[in-house]
User: What shape does this take?
Amino acid sequence: MSTPLSTPRLPGQSPRSPRLPRFPFLPRLSNTMPGQLGRATALLAAIVLFLAALPILTMITMSFSAADTLEFPPHAYSLHWYRAAWHSFVSPDASDSLSMGAALTTSLIVALSTMLIATLVSVPAAYALSRYRFRGKPAVEQLVALPLVYPLVMLGLSLLLVFNVLPVELGVFRLIIAHVILALPFTVKNCAASVASIGPEFEEAACVMGASPGRALVDVILPLMRPGILAGMLFAFIVSFNEFTVTFFLYGIDTMTLPVWLYSRTVSSLDPTVFCFAVVIVVIDFALIWLLEKLIGDEGVAL
Assistant: This one.
């Protein structure tokens, strides 16, 4: 059997790889390896991140302004408005209808109550939606997610009409009920994501070992749901603590939350100390998100 003749090579000459045919009508492939960003993609990502961070950067910059009027960019920087904000916090003006400390206390009470109630409702709801099949299950799942797409202005107005019809004055519970409705999609989704990752064989194994179904749920399933429960709790707190639109329809003079109080400082004339308070709120939100990442990473986060 004959073999094809090879082209003779000179001493020290490396063998040539076979030349592949060229097709000029095909698009040229990028040299970027998978997992690496090309220059255009990296530039686009940087622009998007900059636009997302621009309001926060503007707010931080204005909070360090040394001017008595709002001018951007500031010509000088100082801690003048931070000292004024601290003085407003520790020694509120007698002309103010509500102090910043009282508004912060109301926000914390509402946010903590919302976090606890939403979690207590979401854990059994997420377990039932993940484990059982029943008539109307898709409709229930859509109703749970409805606050994510429902216009907040209409939601606040609807709740205001409902609460005004009731024969009792709910006070701060008006805000708690509204905030629980807004936080339920986040808590249910995160708890459901944890339940979905836990196979039924865990409960079956516990029952085989002699545990009752309730005992298997408490001792086996709930500890494994911990990432989703913690993620839902922190999301519920953040949503409630920063909520403004629905709260604006439902608050009273004694139940004013911190976002509404900040808005009241900008109605007649914009108080520059608002930027300082807003920076503190952003720092708290970032600290909560960092805590969420450190506690559970991406195990239980579902949006």
